[in-house]
Design brief:
homodimer, UDP-N-acetylmuramoyl-L-alanine:D-glutamate ligase, 13 helices, globular
Amino acid sequence: MQTPSLDVVGIGNAIVDIIAHADEAFLKRHGMHKGAMTLIDEAKAEALYADMGPAVQLSGGSAGNTIAGLASLGARTGYIGKVRNDTLGGIFRHDIASAGIAFPTADAEDGPATARCLIFVTADAQRTMNTYLGACGNLTPDDMDAALIESAKITYLEGYLYDPPLAQEAFHRAAEIAHRARRKVALSLSDVFCVERHRAEFLRLADNHIDYLFANEGELTALFQTGFDTALAQATQLVEIAAITRGAGGSVIAAKSESVTVAAAPVAQIVDTTGAGDLYAAGFLYGLANDRRLAECGRLASLAAAEIISHFGGRPEIPLKDYVAARS
Amino acid sequence: MQTPSLDVVGIGNAIVDIIAHADEAFLKRHGMHKGAMTLIDEAKAEALYADMGPAVQLSGGSAGNTIAGLASLGARTGYIGKVRNDTLGGIFRHDIASAGIAFPTADAEDGPATARCLIFVTADAQRTMNTYLGACGNLTPDDMDAALIESAKITYLEGYLYDPPLAQEAFHRAAEIAHRARRKVALSLSDVFCVERHRAEFLRLADNHIDYLFANEGELTALFQTGFDTALAQATQLVEIAAITRGAGGSVIAAKSESVTVAAAPVAQIVDTTGAGDLYAAGFLYGLANDRRLAECGRLASLAAAEIISHFGGRPEIPLKDYVAARS
């Protein structure tokens, strides 16, 4: 078996975020579930955008954010995801490439536009997401670059990838390639509603294909349909490590023989929670890829999450390597 | 004469900003003048973008930022500027319209793409700008909506508008329309190099067409080719009010019979100075349009500038009305 040349390859929906402030009345008027990710079609995306305030555009996507975070920490990374050859696709590709992340997936040259996520941030810094998946629907098993996946210690999959139908098969293909090469596979559960859409399949996946599981409290209990402690115990029967975030309450990391609780890192002002879970995963995976102890993985995870919630958007604004060094 | 239904109409280059961090070596390698705005062609814009780190996209343009700031303060506003009917043009138009700003200028349906400005922010929060003017070159005198200009107390022109050749004539047309309707005309000198490109013409303009002049110290002394105090005295011979910013040193406001110095408003952390001058003008014009005393105009100007330098980009992140109210 070759020595892995990369730390982590992420596979996910390649999305550009469009972020604006909104008040509670706006969410109510549009029937949004606060804090959730809702799938919308292009017409709805246009209607919502027309009613949205002045916005900021930047690359997003759950696994995209995680991989960008890893690159910002200094990890060697790759990404697989589908954009179209349009302006937003160009922005997404630029931001991945310019962070030094390998990105072999070809642009879609026709079909739906690059995916976008309209994100509304309320005064409590909570984000509510509305995603038009667009070109993500064209990610196929053939896009699972075997050489790239085999070259990475860990392949990281976002649960959201389960939404576009063709991507599910791609998801399984990627996990098989990784395990055949004796690599590790990580999964983020992404969102409570996403868990509800794919619960049976996620349980089967966790049992057969997943080594490291990332979730927040709500996603974990939705997956196992039981209370937190029981759900966590059940998770550790299925996977090697489960890292569960609890917002301001920090996180719990459970392995078969060990359990660690980690405090959230302090932030002067929480501006926007977009990407908090994604960057938690980034810090944690950085630790795992570098053989750190679980408590240290958790500390790096909390720091990466702290940087991301201190500004708009789910991509680091300053190099996380510097951010972490200044706090160690 | 009809009562003005708007406070301020801004006319400028309609630009989407692409903002990233960069280090001093990057500026040096690309031969950039730190802190300046340099005009570049499309090929250079693409080459620079390819070498740029992960970025954030949001609407910009000097007068666009000023008018967005005025709208965020609660002013009644309009904007004239040219975008193409492309993705970036759609973003610019959305952000103007969604802020409640009247924007009658039609999209260009062919020709160069919507203008973009590649902005590099160094560790000292200074911004260095590289602008591809694109569709701005298609702004013509016919775009000067007489009804809109006549309806506003003040018409605000950015000096940058002097760069695209057709826009110069548009600039004069707008000033004539405004003065014929007995409105006021304001000019921002924009940039030292811009002043050097158009010095003789700016002096003639200031003498004949400008009531309110905005500049920073460097632009003012470049215009009059003399020291600060003499330059300021000369400016007040030409215009009714000159508001001159001095960075952390605050600003000086000079009228024929009165002079006021205003301290810069405190900021916890200066993140990015993009838009500082634009938002200073926004706060100041808000005060003028509402018949405030010069010292109060300066206070509003300093507060608006303080909000904008505390985050990435030249558009307010929180309603300036609330920001100012919390500090009064």
